[in-house]
Amino acid sequence: MIALPTRRATVRLAHTLARELQPGDLIVLTGGLGAGKTFLVRALLRALGVPAEIAVPSPTFTLMNEYGRDTGARVPIVHADLYRLLGGDLDEELSELGLRARRGEGWALIVEWGEDAYRALGGDGVRLSIDTHPRVAKVVGEGPRGLALASALSDEK
Ligand SMILES: Nc1ncnc2c1ncn2[C@@H]1O[C@H](COP(=O)(O)OP(=O)(O)OP(=O)(O)O)[C@@H](O)[C@H]1O
Ligand SMILES: [Mg+2]
Q1: Which end of the chain has fewer CB within 10 Å, C or N?
Q2: How far does the centroid of ligand 1 lie from the alpha carbon of residue 126, in Å?
Q3: Is any ligand 1 atom within 6 A of the Cβ of residue 6?
C-alpha cells in the first residue's frame, strides 16, 4: 500500500516508477474517474525526461498517445486509456490499436482502464490501482518482470 495523500506523494511515486521502468514494461492502472491515473502518468513522463513544452493530455478520446525517445523519454511510452472500449470487442480493438506489437518493439505500455486487457497485452506486468477516500495505491505484480517491478515500487515505502 502506498499512501497518496497529496499530489506531491503521487509525483514521488511517479519518480520511483521512472527510475525502475524498463522498455517493454506493462502497467495497467485502475481506479475510478478522477482517481489520479492520468496525473500519475503525466508526472511519470516528466520524470522520464519529457519536457513541459510537450503536452501530456488524457488519451480519453485518442485512446493512445505516444512518447518516443525523440520526446526525451528515457523509455518510450505508450499511454493508453481503454475506457471507451469497455463493453465492446476488446480483442479486436486492441489488435487494431497495435498495443501488444508496440510492447514487442520495446515501448512500455501504461494503460488506464486496462484491467480487462491485461492478458491480451501479454501479462507479466503490474496492476496499479488507486483508491480514493483515502487516496492509496496498491501495486500487484505478476510474472517475472511484473513481480520485480512491483517489489521495486513497494520497497520505497
Ligand atoms: N494525491 C493526488 N494524486 C493525484 N491526483 C490528485 C491528488 N489529489 C488531487 N488530485 C487531483 O485529482 C485529479 C485526478 O485526475 P486524473 O485525470 O488524473 O484522473 P484519472 O484517474 O485519470 O481519471 P479518468 O478515469 O477520468 O481518466 C487531478 O485533478 C489531480 O490534480
Ligand atoms: Mg485519466
Answers
A1: N
A2: 20
A3: yes
Nearest CA to 111 out of 21, 17, 43, 25 is that of 25
Full-model pTM? 0.97
Rounded to the nearest angstrom, the distance between the alpha carbon of 115 and the centre of ligand 2 is 14
- CB of 38 shorter than 6 A to ligand 1: yes
- The domain over range 2-143 is classified in CATH as 3.40.50.300: yes
Return the C-alpha cell found at 111.
Answer: 494503460
Q: What pairs with residue 136 in β-bridges? A: 3, 131
